[in-house]
Design brief:
Elements: E1 3-13, E2 22-27, E3 33-39, H1 48-63, E4 71-75, H2 78-82, H3 87-94, E5 99-104, E6 111-112, H4 124-136, E7 149-151, E8 156-158, H5 193-196, H6 204-211, H7 215-224, H8 233-248, H9 250-260
Parallel strand pairs: 1-4
Antiparallel strand pairs: 1-2, 2-3, 3-5, 4-5, 6-7, 7-8
Helix pairs in contact: 1-8, 4-9, 7-8
């Protein structure tokens, strides 16, 4: 679910992304290498809690057969950091948890999805499922100004889920299975809204997949989280509890999502 890899080469800091993600080459336990994009806790709004949200959301998305890059736990040791010439990136790593969250680098050909750009018919269903997923996990970070959504002409890729499952302390918030919970979703809040709006979608596949997220699977998500992130156990508790509630209320939640696009 979350393989551990060790950072071996720094390939630069990404020019985009408020969290200052970095391109790294890492080595797996079987001595093969992989290139990925790593996010460090010090650059995140919820610090280690953001990494917890990222990891749980990625594991869930994979189980729901949604197009999320393969997630990893990334060991970053002191010797590696000391060898990085980029002082800004090195300082952020030193101030962060020694375990970062990583996403496998996508192959060439992917570009950012722009609001209002027509969605090909062959991927419209997946686009609707991505929209629904964001509504269900309360992801506010797929806006036109920062879509966190890529497309290569045939496949989408979703990433940057550090703000999911933030449900407490929000005035007027309702869980997505309650009537009217998603009525405020609009073109300013989701990059896919404009192109999806006005059609009826069959989200039974996504609903069925969500029903398979058992208590034991949710427990496995928790077990996959590293001990180094234990200071954010409250974020994990909230996220995992919410996933279980969603599973138990998935039919009305899906219905609310469908209504949001009518």
């Amino acid at each position: 679910m979350l393989d551990r890899v060790t950072a071996t080469r720094f390939d630069g800091q990404r020019s985009s992304g408020k969290t200052g993600p970095c391109n790294l080459e890492c080595i797996r336990g079987d001595d093969t290498t992989i290139e990925l994009v790593a996010k460090f806790s010090d650059g995140c709004e919820r610090k280690t809690g953001s990494l917890v949200a990222e990891a749980i959301t990625a594991m869930l998305a994979a189980d729901l057969d949604l197009p999320v890059p393969e997630p990893f736990l990334v060991n970053v040791d002191t010797n590696f950091v000391n060898g990085i010439a980029n002082r800004v990136a090195a300082a952020r790593m030193r101030a962060s948890s020694p375990v970062a969250f990583g996403s496998a680098t996508l192959p060439p050909g992917f570009s950012v999805v722009l609001a209002g750009k027509p969605i090909p018919a062959r991927v419209r269903q997946q686009a609707a499922e991505i929209f629904a997923f964001d509504c269900l996990v309360q992801n506010p970070d797929r806006r036109p100004s920062n879509p966190n959504l890529l497309f290569d002409g045939n496949h989408f890729a979703i990433f940057d889920h550090e703000l999911t499952f933030m449900t407490t302390g929000i005035i007027g918030w309702k869980p997505p299975w309650e009537a009217g919970a998603l009525q405020a979703v609009n073109a300013d809040r989701h990059v896919l809204f404009t192109e999806l709006k006005g059609r009826q979608y069959d989200l039974s596949r996504l609903e069925g997949a969500w029903r398979t997220i058992s208590a034991s699977r949710i427990a496995a998500y928790r077990k996959a989280l590293p001990a180094e992130w234990s200071d954010a156990s409250g974020v994990a508790d909230e996220a995992l509890g919410f996933i279980a509630q969603l599973r138990d209320n998935i039919e009305p939640a899906i219905a609310e999502t469908v209504r949001a696009l009518l």
